[in-house]
């Protein structure tokens, strides 16, 4: 079976690898690029643990072939902390918005995508946006509060910088 | 598996026609990849349509309608203010499909060709009078959306044919559409029943109507009886009662784990009534 040469930008870095035609973006991130922060929960697009952004759009990396990422800009959890943790990451720790942590990378990536579109989402908007990110430990309330708190801080910082 | 990336629909059709094995087209992939993973489908040829120019675009047609590329994902439809203003029912149906992540990939064409009787975007398209361009080895033809599904998981497209565009007619004046579905939760579920209503008013009177019912038959149904029940009325209580009765009469559902036959028949009537009222209010220019 012939392999497909894929070049892409992942977290700002140019990458290239040879993908099996059936291989998902999720498997390529984990197995070719050693970016194991992106998790496989269900593998069928139901749980959101494998959330990444592709050209700025939030997707399940299990529902995309690695070959489809050719030429695309991919952002994963590994690209989230820049100079220290992202506000969402800090607030998840402060609010204890995780227990086992398996769903957390996907939820952080999804929440970041939300706040980039909508810096001041209502609780309802947060809950609907994150409806495709399943967590079996925390019961969601702490996650929602952490996102709200991070959003408030980011709005404050933004005003401070303006 | 051979992964193809044609740059025209005629090339895609030619590859499909030449394929002797299991074949799948890839737009958003939110159904195809799940089927591949589950082992339900192991394509010999997978034809990725996203390298064809224009498939990611939403454009006004010369007539004032909309031409929607086959790879436009739900999140882009929902973010297109002018399209939402013209056809809110079509867009709200598509936007009910799956999660935010799924909306980032899933397409109208894929939802239609997956052939589910419960596909949330299909009743809205049918009620709107949308058409699809079908391209095959011998050229292209235009068919109404309701002519595509043949039964659960099946379409009427011949081997080598694929959908190359979706066209919505001009909205025109005093029109409104709406889609509602019933699910036992608030999000991330498959319709137990769905209903779309599209109508046009002259003053307070309904002069045109199209009603489509989902998940109550092997395919999404376009119901003339439902349309007749409200055309010529002001959508008063008597018209709404007649509409509900017509919808119940049209529904030929099965009982399964998501709902019994009796429940689905009753809900078809309820949703038809509610969707008609929303469409009516939208046609009146009221926010709904």
UniProtKB/TrEMBL annotation, chain A:
CDD domains: fer2. The keyword Electron transport does not apply. Keywords: 2Fe-2S, Iron, Iron-sulfur, Metal-binding, Oxidoreductase. Gene3D superfamilies: 3.10.20.30, [2Fe-2S]-binding domain (1.10.150.120). InterPro entries: 2Fe-2S-bd, 2Fe-2S-bd_dom_sf, 2Fe-2S_ferredoxin-like_sf, 2Fe-2S_ferredoxin-type, 2Fe2S_fd_BS, Beta-grasp_dom_sf, Diverse_Oxidoreductases. SUPFAM superfamilies: 2Fe-2S ferredoxin-like, CO dehydrogenase ISP C-domain like. Residues 4-80 form the 2Fe-2S ferredoxin-type domain. PANTHER family: OXIDOREDUCTASE WITH IRON-SULFUR SUBUNIT (PTHR44379:SF5). This is (2Fe-2S)-binding protein. It comes from Rhodobacter calidifons.
Automatic annotation (TrEMBL), chain B:
The keyword Flavoprotein applies. The keyword RNA-binding does not apply. It holds the Pfam family CO_deh_flav_C. SUPFAM superfamilies: CO dehydrogenase flavoprotein C-terminal domain-like (SSF55447), FAD-binding/transporter-associated domain-like (SSF56176). Keywords: FAD, Flavoprotein. Transmembrane segments: none annotated. Residues 1-173 form the FAD-binding PCMH-type domain. InterPro entries: CO_DH_flav_C, CO_DH_flav_C_dom_sf, Diverse_Substr_Oxidored, FAD-bd_PCMH, FAD-bd_PCMH-like_sf, FAD-bd_PCMH_sub1, FAD-bd_PCMH_sub2, Mopterin_DH_FAD-bd. This is Xanthine dehydrogenase family protein subunit M. The lineage of its organism: Bacteria, Pseudomonadati, Pseudomonadota, Alphaproteobacteria, Rhodobacterales.
């Amino acid at each position: 079976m012939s392999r497909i040469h894929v070049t892409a930008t992942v977290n700002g870095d140019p990458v290239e690898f040879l993908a099996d035609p059936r291989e998902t973006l999720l498997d390529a991130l984990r197995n070719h690029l050693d970016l194991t922060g992106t998790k496989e929960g269900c593998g069928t697009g139901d749980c959101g643990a494998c959330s990444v952004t592709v050209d700025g759009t939030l997707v399940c990396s299990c529902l995309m072939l690695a070959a489809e990422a050719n030429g695309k800009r991919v952002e994963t959890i590994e690209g989230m902390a820049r100079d220290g943790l992202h506000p969402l990451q800090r607030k998840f720790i402060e609010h204890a918005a995780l227990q086992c942590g398996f769903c957390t990378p996907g939820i952080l990536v999804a929440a970041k995508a939300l706040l980039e579109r909508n810096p001041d989402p209502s609780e309802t908007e947060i809950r609907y946006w994150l409806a495709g990110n399943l967590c079996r430990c925390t019961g969601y309330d702490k996650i929602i509060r952490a996102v709200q708190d991070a959003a408030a801080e980011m709005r404050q910082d933004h005003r401070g910088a303006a | 598996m051979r992964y193809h990336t044609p740059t025209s629909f005629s090339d895609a059709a030619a590859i499909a026609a030449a394929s002797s094995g299991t074949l799948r087209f890839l737009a958003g992939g939110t159904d195809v990849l799940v089927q591949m993973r589950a082992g339900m489908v192991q394509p010999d040829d997978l034809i990725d349509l996203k390298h064809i120019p224009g498939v990611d675009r939403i454009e006004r047609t010369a007539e004032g309608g909309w031409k929607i590329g086959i790879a436009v994902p739900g999140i882009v439809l929902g973010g297109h203010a002018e399209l939402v203003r013209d056809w809110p029912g079509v867009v709200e149906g598509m936007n009910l499909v799956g999660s935010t992540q799924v909306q980032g990939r899933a397409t109208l064409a894929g939802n239609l060709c997956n052939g589910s009787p419960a596909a949330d975007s299909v009743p809205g398209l049918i009620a709107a009078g949308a058409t699809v361009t079908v391209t095959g080895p011998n050229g292209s033809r235009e068919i109404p959306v309701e002519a595509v599904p043949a039964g659960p998981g099946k379409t009427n497209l011949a081997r080598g044919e694929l959908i190359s565009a979706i066209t919505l007619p001009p909205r025109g004046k005093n029109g409104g559409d709406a889609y509602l579905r019933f699910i036992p939760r608030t999000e991330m579920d498959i319709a137990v029943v769905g209903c779309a209503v599209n109508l046009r008013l002259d003053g307070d009177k309904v002069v045109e109507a199209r009603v489509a019912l989902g998940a109550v038959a092997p395919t999404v149904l376009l119901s003339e009886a439902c349309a007749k029940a409200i055309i010529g009325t002001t959508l008063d209580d008597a018209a709404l009662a007649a509409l509900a009765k017509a919808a119940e009469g049209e529904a030929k559902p099965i009982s399964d784990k998501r709902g019994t036959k009796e429940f689905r028949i009753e809900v078809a009537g309820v949703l038809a009534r509610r969707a008609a009222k929303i469409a009516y209010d939208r046609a009146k220019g009221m926010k709904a």
